[in-house]
Amino acid sequence: MTHTDSLRETPAPEAGARPGLTLAAVAVVQFMVSLDLSVVNVGLPQIRTDLGFSEVGLTWVIHAYALTFGGLLLLGGKIADLFGRKRMVLIGLTVFGIASLLGGFSTEPGHLVAARAGQGIGAAALAPAALALLTATFPSGRERVKAFGVWSAVNAAGAAFGVLIGGLLTEYAGWEWVMFVNVPMVIVAVTLAWRGIVADGPRTQRGRPDVLGAILATAGMTLLVFGVVRTDRYPWTSSTTLLTLAAAVVLLVVFLFVEKSTSRDPLIRLSLFRNRSVAGANLFVLLLGGAMASAFFFISLYLQRVLGSSPAKSGVEFLPFAFGVVLGSVLAIKLGGTLAPRMVLAIGGLLTGVGFAFFSLFTADGSFAVDVLGPSLIASIGIGLCLAPMASLGTSGVEEHEAGSASALLNSSRQIGAALGLAALGTVANARTGDSGTMEALTDGYALGMLIGAVIVAVGVLIALAVLPRTSRDTEAAGHH
Predict the structure, then answer these.
(1) 310-331: pLDDT as tens digits
(2) Any alpha helices (H) in 230-272, and if so which ranges?
C-alpha cells in the first residue's frame, strides 16, 4: 500500500461525531494546557513580592504543576480509555477551571501552589483524553493530517504565546490574571466539548483494573520529575538527587515487571512498544522535548539578561517563533499529502537542529535581529513540521480502546524529556558560565546549551529514521500484533 493509497482509504469517524466541533474543542484544550506551562513564568517576580514567597518556595509555583501533570498522565490516559474520553475531558476542564479561579484569588503561597497542583491534575485528565479523541475522530487520510496539523499549531502556539500573554497580563493587569485567563477558555472548551464530542458509549469491562501498577507508575513518574526539577538546589551528584532518582528508577522497573506479569487490565500494555510507530515517536518526542524546553529557557534568558529586554518586550520577541511554528504546521499539512509522516518528521527535525545550532552563535554584544530572529524562524518552522506527524505516529496502529494510553505515553515522554533536558542542559550551561557572571560568560553558557540541544535533535532524527516504519501498513500490522 502506498502513502497515497492510504489517504484514499479513510474510515468514517464515529457515528454521531461532529468532527469540526471536536477539533475546535481539542484545539482550545491543547492551547490552554500548553499556555499554562509558560504563562506563569514571567509573573514570578511579582508573585514573589505580593504573596511573600521565599526564593526556594517560588520554584514550587512551577514544580507543583509539572509534578502532578507528569506524574498522573499515564493514569489519566487509562481512566479515559476505561470510563470515556468525553467524560474525562469535561471532568478535567472543570477541575482545571476551578483550580485556575482559586489560584487567582490566592492570598498566601500555599494557596497558589495547591491551585497549580490542581491545574496539573486537570491537565493530566485532559491532555491524553483530548489527543485520543482526535485519533478516534480522524482515523486516517488527509483529514487526519489536517487535524493533527491544527493540533500541533495550537500546541506550540500556546507555549510561545504564553510568554507574551504572561508578560502583558503581569505588567498591565496583575499576576492574578495569568490564572484567571484560563477561566473563559475553559467555558469555551466545555461548550464545544458538550456539543461537538460524541457521547461516550457504555463502559466495557476488560478485567480488574491494575491498581498496583497505577500506584507504582504515578509514584515513579512523580519522583523522577521531582528529582530532576530539584537539581537547581541539589546538584546531580548530591546524595539527595541520587537517592531520589534511584528510588524513581526502582519504582518504574517494578512497575514494568508488574505490567508484564499482572493478570489484571494493565495500565500500559508493554506490547504497545512492539509498534515501531509508537516506539519511534516516543523516543523522538523524549529528545525533542528536552531540546525544546531548554531552548525556550536559554533564549528567554539571553533576551532579558544579555540583550536587556523587559518581560513584555521579550514576550513580543517570541512572536516570530510562534508564527514560525504555525507556518511549519501548515507546511506539514501540505507535505503530509505527498510524503510519509516519518519523512516530514525528519525534515522538521533537521531544520530544528540547524536553527538551534544557529542560536549557538549568540554573542554578548549581539542584537535581536542578528542573533535571535533568523534562528527563531528556522527552528520554529522545523518544530511545526515535527509536531503533527509526531503525535499522529505516536497514536497510529493502536487499538481504539488503548488510544488514551498511547496518548498519555506520548505526553509523558514529552514531559520527562522536558524536565531531564532542562535540568541537564541548564547544569551544563551553568558550569560553562562559572562564577564570573559577565555577559560573555552568560552568553557562552547559553550558546553551549543550544549547541548540545542541536546535537540531541539530530540524534532524535537518526533514531526516528531507524525505528519508524516506512509505510502505514507496517504501522497497522505492528499495532495489531
Answers:
(1) 767 877 888 898 889 889 988 9
(2) 239-261
